[in-house]
């Protein structure tokens, strides 16, 4: 199968299709994932081609969806479950953090739970309440879970493959505002390791570290800064737990400055952990404090106000300027 240009949502669909086709133990479960093909059509056509015993429409019961997936994984299946929107995951939070994340340790390594939990997340689509949240830090705090988020179609395809093949549970955050962004997917490529960060734009003055929906924004910031003679390096973290601190450190040792960008609130966000670790690792290389740009410590606002809440080009450029001013 040759390389093909496709939307990020289509890349996930193709990855799920490949997994269903190659491994009879792979199942897909969730609200409206079958007949409807998902509210974003990410699972479109899969039930038609693989049947309703492989692509399963479930009741509106997130705790039950994840709990059932845990039972299936204990029986040797590899369930991929969809939480329809980010803000709907919390009824399943207990199952995820007290059962899914702990079973491997509780059984002294004898039990593995290869479950993927797909969560469309983040804002920028004009949605109503509980449809635009970024709860990744809540899960990253829990040992036993892998947390990843692709920023482009190629990573969306390959990271889903790797997540399904993992014997540990993976929370796969899908940046819904990027579902329709297109990119090249090479179906015969050798993918980077699941938790390896990637330098997606070289630079010398400041490192911008981001993941998921904010990587595209950081590209736009770097392009705008280049017009002013500033060279920004963009690092796609790809994984929130574990974080590839070695790659962040290597970039910061080159640039001397770091700005971390994410949609989630800055307060107790993943950027705080990155800032603390890099300050410890790179103290004598840093020319300025590590700065963070993200959402505010407030409930996600109504759609008409979300552009004022979400990080944008001006806010990130302001952080870059503040870093360079030291």
Output the helix-strand order.
EHEHEHEHHEHEHEEEEHEEHEHEHH
Average predicted local confidence, pLDDT: 97
Low-confidence stretches: none
Shape: globular
> Terminal Cα separation, in Å?
51 Å
Content-based structural category:
alpha/beta
Radius of gyration of CA atoms, rounded to a whole number: 19 Å
Helix content: 25-40%
Can you summarize the main beta sheet? Answer: 7 strands, mixed
Number of helices: 12
Give the beta-strand count. Answer: 14
Portion of residues in beta strands equals 15-25%
* Sheet with most strands: strand arrangement: 3-2-4-5-7-6-12
Detailed description of the structure:
- By secondary structure, the chain is an alpha/beta fold.
- The chain has twelve helices and 14 strands.
- The protein has a seven-stranded mixed β-sheet with strand order 3-2-4-5-7-6-12, with helices on both faces.
- The radius of gyration is 19 Å and the shape is globular.
- The relative contact order is 0.12.
Briefly, what is this?
This protein is an alpha/beta fold. The protein contains twelve helices and 14 strands.
List the helices and strands and how they pair.
Layout lengths: L3 E4 H15 L3 E5 L15 H5 L4 E3 L4 H13 L3 E5 L10 H8 L2 H4 L9 E6 L14 H5 L5 E3 L4 H13 L4 E6 L6 E4 L12 E4 L4 E5 L3 H13 L5 E5 L2 E3 L3 H11 L2 E8 L4 H12 L9 E5 L10 H4 L3 H12 L2
């Amino acid at each position: 199968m040759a390389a093909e240009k496709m939307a990020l949502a289509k890349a996930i669909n193709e990855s799920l299709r490949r997994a269903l086709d190659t491994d009879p133990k792979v199942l897909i479960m969730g609200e409206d994932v079958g007949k409807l093909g998902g509210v974003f059509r990410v699972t479109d056509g899969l039930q038609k081609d693989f049947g309703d015993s492989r692509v399963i429409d479930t009741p509106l019961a997130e705790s039950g969806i994840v709990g059932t997936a845990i039972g299936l994984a204990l029986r040797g299946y590899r369930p991929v479950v969809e939480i329809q929107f980010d803000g709907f995951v919390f009824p399943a939070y207990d199952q995820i953090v007290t059962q899914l994340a702990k079973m491997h340790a509780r059984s002294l390594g004898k039990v593995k739970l290869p479950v993927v939990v797909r969560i469309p997340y983040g804002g920028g689509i004009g949605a109503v309440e509980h449809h635009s949240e970024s709860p990744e830090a809540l899960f990253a705090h829990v040992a036993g879970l892998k947390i990843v988020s692709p920023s482009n179609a190629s990573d969306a395809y390959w990271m889903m493959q790797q997540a399904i093949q993992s014997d540990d549970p993976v929370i796969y955050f899908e940046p819904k505002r990027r579902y329709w962004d297109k990119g090249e997917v090479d179906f015969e490529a050798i993918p980077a390791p699941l938790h390896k960060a990637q330098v997606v734009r070289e630079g010398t003055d400041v490192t911008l570290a981001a993941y998921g929906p904010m990587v595209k924004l950081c590209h736009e910031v770097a392009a705008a800064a280049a017009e002013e003679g500033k060279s920004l390096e963009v690092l796609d973290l790809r994984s929130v737990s574990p974080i590839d601190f070695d790659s962040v450190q290597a970039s910061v040792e080159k640039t001397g400055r770091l700005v971390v960008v994410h949609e989630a609130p800055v307060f107790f966000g993943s950027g705080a952990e990155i800032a603390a670790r890099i300050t410890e690792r790179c103290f004598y290389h840093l020319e300025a404090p590590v700065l963070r740009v993200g959402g505010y410590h407030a409930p996600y606002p109504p759609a008409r106000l979300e552009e004022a809440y979400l990080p944008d080009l001006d806010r990130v450029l302001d952080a870059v300027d503040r870093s360079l001013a030291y």
